[in-house]
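Box S2. Input/output pair 1.
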Amino acid sequence: MGCVACQPILDTKKNVFSYELLYRSSLDSEKYDATDGSAATRELLSTAFGDIGIQKITGGKRAFVNFPAPLLVEDIPMLYSKNILVVEVLESVEPAEENIEALRKLKKQGYLLALDDFTFPSGYDEIIRMADIIKVDFVQYRDRREMQRLLNRIRRFGDKVLLAEKVETEEEFELARRMGFSLFQGFFFSRPKLHSGLHLSPMELSRLQLLRCLS
């Protein structure tokens, strides 16, 4: 049985904008518990889009999914609709040319790109320019002056949607909103909700992936 945790992402009026899909190995898992990031994302995609059905999980809202570099290079996001999938670029993705080229292809095809746990790493300028959404960890930036400096640097790259992660109180929500964040995620709004479904057989999964490619 495959499992997916789903956490809402809200707008400034606390309406659901989208959901982030999170890997869980079982119904007893309370946090990310995979040892292989690529394998975890593959299983999450198979479970969410195949076994359970993405409509059942998100109700037609967009779905943020974390993608490590190998899956970006393999063009795995392109198996899924750009109208549903938001490609979340993990902080571990290096600004190597093959990774940048993979992101260029996704951008050209119309996919939304989000940068996860953003801290302004060196050499990321082109990736930042391509990004539509930038996620900032509110817990990591307890020093609000440091966070403001980060946001000022991000704004030099144009109009980016800012998403505050790990918002845990009403006060943090209000502060993030005043600082210019327009999307919010965290335990203050909702803990991740688990969904489960029966795994498809290898033949059924191959058929599903073929149909996606053809469409």
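Box S3. Input/output pair 2.
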Amino acid sequence: MQIVKYFKHIFLSSIIFLIPFVDFLNKNIEEIEIILGKSFYFLIFIVSSFLLILTYTINYILKKINFYEALLIVGVSYWLFFQHNFIKLTIVKIFNIIGLSRFNLSAELSLIIIIVLSVYLSKLIYKNNLFLIKFFYIFFLLTFFASIFQIIVLNKKPNLVKTEEISIINFPDKLNNKKENIYFFILDGMQPIDEFEKHYQLSKKDFIDSAQNKKYDYIHNTVNFYGNTSHSLSALFYLDKIFNEENQLKKKITKFFPSFLRNKNKNPDLIYNLNNLGYDFKWIGNFFAYCPKFNLNYCLKKDNNTIIDSYLYINFFKQTPLIQIIIKLGEIFKFDFNKYIFFKLNNGMGRLISYLKENIKEFKKNKPTFYFIHHMSPHWPYITKSDCSYKKYPGKQNLEGYKSAYLCTLKRIEEMINFLNEIDPNSIVVFQGDHNWEMSYFSEIKYGRRNEIFNLIKIDEKCNMDQNINLNNVNTARLILSCITGNNPGFLK
């Protein structure tokens, strides 16, 4: 009888252990071919090894708890660990309802709840609470097989959106010409170059002249529809304003950037058109909008035969408090995340160059690609000198820090222009801000309007680019699609 009991504990613990992995596959079913590789199986091995070691440790320290009870305790605590994000969001909703949204303690409270529940349930398991054990069997078996059912059955059904039910801005291909790669660089917080020159008493005429000699046009007086990243980039992907004349969110806008990129079957208008035109969409994000946290399929292709894939692991553990705990520990032990993580991660242009150099043979064979690079500079944190070496400038309103970051960004733009001219000279290239610098939050009179942006474009000479048009993020995307398809861009005012 005792053997049967132990076998049941092992079986239940195994089911609990597999649930986060099955849920992960279920939520990322569209990227299953990317996920199922050596790195995924290695992750299973590492996590299972850690849980077994933890079980043996608990069993050794607490002599009264046998190994099988310890295994179940670890399994339940492990499952609770993966409920962190759900609990945190629930707390946020409750705080919003009762008017305590200003208290940003949801992550901490979630972790406390997980710890308290783990301790409480551990005591009940140790006392061999039969009702709880039976509940565990029913709950975890139903959870496990429900996820398996979704993977095998529900996700095989076509999840198509009827185009007549949704108003889609469509650019059908009337030309059927060869499609060139498109590089769309968002330079976060990059103010217009003339405003930068005026404020810092610097001339960057040499930069403009150099860009023009390489067939780039700097478009002055460009104004985005919105003054923040979320709204500006949402409008870019929907190819439209996201608020109506009454300042109400349009019905088709159910989520903002980057949340809507999670679901490949409900593409915003830009990606819908790119797919119809035979383009791949590849996204290089940053710490604030990191591609692996949203859609692995859009990240630059990774070799699924590699043993360690940090993109995959971050995506797997994003439901847990692990990443936040690591950040907190780093702060305690004075680990400079800015230098060793954000400095490289936020350099979207540098990461693209490195990737293309390493994969140049595959790059030349690939079908046309729309590269969306969200370069997190000159936005704060300001962590570069003007020569692009590392230096941390404190605060969001650090004028010297912004100046250095801006000059570094211009340097990286020049490097990118030279690199693309060498490997992809016929490509379409856009360097644009999404909003003005941080200081414009505090005084638009002194520091410029929040939605004024930097704008440098290279497009096919056959394409008529009227510089009197406000070629902001949305209108530029419309211009590109109209040029490669032969349609009227329908510019927005």
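Caption for Box S3: The chain has a mean pLDDT of 89. The chain has 19 helices and eight strands.
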